[in-house]
Amino acid sequence: MQIHYLSQSNSILNHFLGQIRNVTIQTDSMRFRRNIERIGEIMAYELSKNLNYKNIEIQTPLGIKKTTEIEDELVLCSILRAGLPLHLGFLNYFDNAENGFVSAYRYHKNNDDSFEIKVEYQAVPCIDNKNLLLIDPMLATGQSMVAVFNKLLEKGNPREIHIAVVIAVPEGIAFLEKHLPENCHLWIATLDEKLNDKNYIIPGLGDAGDLAYGNKL
User: Fold this and answer.
1) Which DSSP category does 13 fall into?
2) Model confidence pLDDT, tens digit, residues 4-62
3) What pTM does this model have?
4) DSSP track, 77-109
5) Beta-carbon neighbour count of residue 177 at 10 Å?
6) CA separation for the pair 5, 104 (Å, rounded)
7) Residue 20, H or E segment
8) Which helix (H) or strand (E) holds 209?
9) How far does Cα 196 stand from its chain's mean position?
10) N or C, fewer C-beta in 10 Å, the chain?
């Protein structure tokens, strides 16, 4: 797996990452969603450098200009519900991409800290021979990402696989490296320290879905 860490050098990305963590700023859910969206736009720009392009000619009012455009067929797929603002950021840049959505959640069968991942709803186009961009803000244990990826394989075999997350921890990265194909690209906006005993990211930012859309019922 090829891993891309995007916040190692200072940029406006770090400014937005700081704001989504700030306990005072993140109480404004509209601003939280917008900052996640802007992070998605920055990540989309960086990821775009690894796509394939073709040469084209464009007619301008005064002549012909040779340039390039994306050749790959892209499918953006986000994990509901936390992935929606990040998905929108990617879609702002990859506006011709197809879109898919999958639900995944931690199911605590015994009402304790142990859990399994439930993948239920999905609305996903065919991904066969296309570039799959799987999007979710938080990479904690990695179990949700792997479960969703395996579910998506029912829709075909992608030509390239890109996983995009805002915050990751070493445990989640190791899990993906063990269970996903070696040719995956993992795009990480920022790397955090560890998981706590409840498998939440430390220092993290809290529950991204709740911060974006309110507490779950």
Assistant:
1) H
2) 999 988 999 999 999 999 999 999 999 999 999 999 999 999 999 999 999 999 999 99
3) 0.92
4) EEEETTTHHHHHHHHHHSTT-EEEEEEEEEE-T
5) 14
6) 25
7) helix 12-21
8) helix 208-213
9) 22
10) C
Q: Say which amino acid occupies 146.
A: V
- In Å, what is the CA distance from 171 to each residue of 83, 181, 193? 20, 17, 10
How far out from the chain centre does Cα 79 lie?
A: 8
8-198-134-154 Cα dihedral, nearest 10 degrees? 150
Tokens of residue 66, six digits: 């040779």
Task: Tell me the C-alpha distance between 151 and 155, whole Å.
Answer: 8
Q: Which residues of 53-65 are buried (b: 16+ CB within 10 A; e: fewer)?
A: eeeeeeeeeeeee
Q: What's the sign of the alpha-carbon dihedral 36, 92, 88, 102?
A: negative
